[in-house]
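Researcher: Here's my situation. A collaborator sent me these components and asked whether they could plausibly form a single complex. I don't have experimental data yet, so a predicted model of the whole assembly would be a useful starting point for our discussion.
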Amino acid sequence: MAKIRERNRELIIQAASEIFAAQGFAATKTVDIAEQAGLPKANVYYYFKSKKNLYRSVIVSVIEPLLQAATPFYQDDDPATVLEQYIRAKIRVSQQHPSASKVFASEIMHGAPHLPDDIAAQMMEQTRVSSHKIQSWIDRGLMDPVDPHHLLFTIWASTQTYADFDWQISRVTGKDKMTQRDYDIAADQLTRLILKGCGVQATQTSDA
Amino acid sequence: MAKIRERNRELIIQAASEIFAAQGFAATKTVDIAEQAGLPKANVYYYFKSKKNLYRSVIVSVIEPLLQAATPFYQDDDPATVLEQYIRAKIRVSQQHPSASKVFASEIMHGAPHLPDDIAAQMMEQTRVSSHKIQSWIDRGLMDPVDPHHLLFTIWASTQTYADFDWQISRVTGKDKMTQRDYDIAADQLTRLILKGCGVQATQTSDA
DNA sequence: GTCTATACTAGGATAGAC
DNA sequence: GTCTATCCTAGTATAGAC
């Protein structure tokens, strides 16, 4: 039954994402992944051959939502709209895919030794498109003359922090887990900060 | 000779900071630390008893510059001055102590399992003081009514990113290493973004 | 296709010579 | 106080029964 195969691979990847996110690659034991997935350890090796290989599969599986967040840059050309949608999308990723975000952060922080070239290339391409778009807004006088790259770094960092550094956030706010309302406040405030900070003219935006 | 003792401990801690930062705790081999420090492995155990213990010592040793960055909040009461000085101090830490920043980021990301309580307490106390000060500026109408915690999260994230995610930054900018000028640009832009974004009135600031 | 039982090795830790 | 040689556990990986 190929269905079982698919299902088990899915279970293992899901379990692995969480544990890799929580502990990091090296600290993760394949036994723990197997346990979390409710399968014997040998099964993990049967499906993925090696721990490294499984890790690569996890990376590929978590990349999707991260890349997806950049779509606003491809769908619109109004700075206020795009930046707001982008920030909200990035915060949503942190909220809904915290493990993906952490696995990635850890991978990048250690110099991306396992990141497949084509994924790295896709990320670079998105960055290129986004920063060109920002530059074009600047050229058209729609916002202050900021350095597009640094603006992106700021947005990436301050949205991902809600996933990657959740421990710290939880300590500071005194809440075990952020509520939907907390994420909304974070997104609202960051949007206002960035738009106002870059001198972007407010336009009619959807109330997402 | 107690001098040798001091010197060797110093060498080991220095080497360990770099390797823990680059690889993470679990992926780091004590042999590599010993090699980097130019000492035999047993020496590392002689001085630090265990890998975990060495790691804790590293954490304590790297905390100093990180805590130091918050001094502007204790020395002044003008929002433009304090925020600018704080952002510049944080960026300087990322530039001058990238390993410290990474070790910490990694520790926090994994739920701070090794962070000594007193250090965590100091960080919380600093956060408390900083956010109270921000709130007082808001109450006095010196800046927009933002959520102080979220503002701090944004500043932390976007300054630390220059150390923690240097790989990504290097890929995007196409530069192997950021120059002094690059750090200055980053600090200038982030300062302007935050001050303007929070509606802080510009005041006479030192040209640091 | 699944899993139990086992082989193999890396790497943390230490005993004991100098 | 220093370091060489060795121990031993933990954890990856697999052989082979079901």
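Model: Some features of this prediction you could bring to your collaborator: The longest helix of chain B spans residues 117-139. Chain B has a mean pLDDT of 95.
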